[in-house]
Amino acid sequence: MTYKYQVTGILVVSLLAACSSIEERELASGSFEYIKETPGQRINIPEEVDSPNFSESYKLPELGATAPTDTLGKELSVLSPSLVLPVVAGSHIEEGSKTARVWFDQVDDDEPLEVTIWGQLTSFLKSQDIGIQEMDEENFRLVTDWIVYDASLENSWYTLYGSEKLESKRFEFKVDKKTHGRTASLSSNLVAYKEKLTPDSPEIMIPKDQRRYEVDVLNQVVAHYEFNTRVQTVKRFRQIRQGLETELGFDADGEPAFVVDADYDIAWPRLLLVLRKLGFDVKDFDKSNGMLFLNYSDGDSSWWSNIWSSESGELALDEDEYRIKVIDIGKKTSITFMDEESIPFPVNQLTDLYKPFSEYMSDDNLDI
Fold it and tell me: Over the chain, what is the mean pLDDT?
């Protein structure tokens, strides 16, 4: 019996909690009689009585010139502050900023940062079927069409008092970059608002919490950006893991080279894995210029020692430091092996290296 009463009590509490509408949950509970009170005055102390020591510890600060004076009682929202969430790699916010804005640092050199941010913004709008009323692609600015939220669609069967609230919002988005071009921001600004609590109620044109709306929609764009980044990372990781075909050819300078059937950003990390398998130690590299500086130590049990053996007198090399030049040649990537003086390997040396190099490069199960 006790268990039965407990379950009944839980159901009653749940139903009572469901009774409150969306509007009511945004307000403070209890009475609003305090708004009828006049501000307190200092106690009048008779002249013949000693005045006590008054503390200023709990004195309220004076209101600023632009502070809202009518946000009292039911006009005051008690929802927690909205925070911009910089969840994308390389993103951050400015502490103390009241603007709905998130900053991004360049982490991928495939395209200009502002183009990437703009692409993610328009991708989000398209995924949510949000129209665009104004667009200035040259200055990276756009204004959305009306974004409508119908609270009645969120009403559940157990909600005794549903809501018919209908909100419509339009936002301005802007992408701004710093002069050095390696950092850019995305900001949102509410430019128009309409609200009806019921179909017959008058239309409200002034939002209670403008910044909340701006932050919420900005966080949705950033979350979309972060999700797409993770998808691309997983896709790129799978491409790096799978085997890549290699053929003998020439680089852009006409030097003998390996030509890998993959984009530069896929071939580069795959090459680092292959070099490690071949016994190379990468001392330094510059991806932007496509240069790697290597060190190789010959091992007695390594297949590489057979390649560098001097049995034929053609492949004997005394140097143990090498360089590799990696060049993007469209949808493929050329890899040129060089000695420490940046002199490319001749064709016969590159041919001897081709078999083990291409086998590792084409291995679908290369251990990372």
Answer: 83
